[in-house]
Amino acid sequence: MDINKLIKPNIRSLRAYQAEEIPCRIKLDANESPYSAISGQLSALSRENLQALNRYPDPHATSLRYLMAKALKVKPQNILHGNGSDELIYNLIMAFGGPVLYPVPTFSMYGVISQALGERKIEVPLDNQFDLDTDAFMKTIKTRDPKLIFLSSPNNPTGNCFSEDRILKIIRQSKGLVVVDEAYQQFSDKRSFIPLIKKYENLVVLRTLSKIGLAGLRLGFMISGPEIVNEVNKVRLPFNVNSLSQKVAEAALQDKRQMRSDIRLVISERKRLFKEMVKLDGVKPYPSDANFIFFKVDNGDSIHSGLIRKGVLIRNMKGAADGGLRVTVGAPAENAAFLKALKQIL
Ligand code: PMP
User: Fold this and answer.
1) pLDDT by residue (tens digit) across 75-85?
2) Ligand 1 site, residue 86, Cβ cutoff 6 A
3) How far lies 109's CA from each of 180, 219, 317, in Å?
4) Model confidence pTM above 0.85
5) Is the distance from the beta carbon of residue 183 to the nearest atom of ligand 1 less than 6 Å?
6) All domains in the chain, ordered by first residue
């Protein structure tokens, strides 16, 4: 049997998502939180919850969506739950199709999923400030009429938020949906786009619990007008979020104090790490609104592998942003170990 002849051409030419599995003492490659938001929530996993595992989970995640709606000041019918926000990206592209437009460099899954689903993708480079090139976007919107536009703001991997007025211009101009992916919004002092879903019916916002201490639960949320929620809900698999994740997230959302103080700690560590990195000769860090810092060095590959040899794993973005590296902000001791190793290598 020749698998190559059986597989669809768009899948054959696809590269699987590269999540680095190199075991390292210090893991600063995946934009996770160094703090688990779960410590006070273990009681949520009572015997009752565990015994109920013979039943399927609530397909609508009713309580969880209610709590999330309260936290985000929207209605439960404005929210759809995903097994991670990347599942919602998948569902959106499945439901609406392409062309799918996004700036580059950005989160790789917009392109990977478009290709996996056989949809056309259009990539427009960011300007030299890593902001949206509105002229290029306007031209592309006019000539190609994309069904979906993905804007990660703060942007992964560059770390900055895009200018609000440029995002608004794109939302107003586009006849398709504009998805503002706010995976890192809580680390930024810029405004969220969630309140604007009432004003712009083509606006969709994505949020995730992955960056704020619950990556292992796999929980993401789509926030939009109820009509879009209803359509995307048709392609969502019925029991996509398991019962344990629903229960633990509900408990975590009922008491958000720990999460909030962990976010504040990460922000203050980001500021400290940035100040230290600026002082290093040959290192150019870029200001960040997220829980990671994008930086450029002369020889990214050798710095990346040198850090691995010293037990520190960061992300090499060479494919997406030439010579760029991305370090997640960790706990103070992890950031200190990263800085020490980086200085030694330089
Ligand atoms: N959007 C962006 C911009 C991301 O960086 C990530 C994670 N790397 C995701 C979405 C997906 O997050 P999750 O599936 O864990 O919710």
Assistant:
1) 999 999 999 99
2) yes
3) 14, 16, 14
4) yes
5) yes
6) 19-36+258-345 (3.90.1150.10), 42-254 (3.40.640.10)
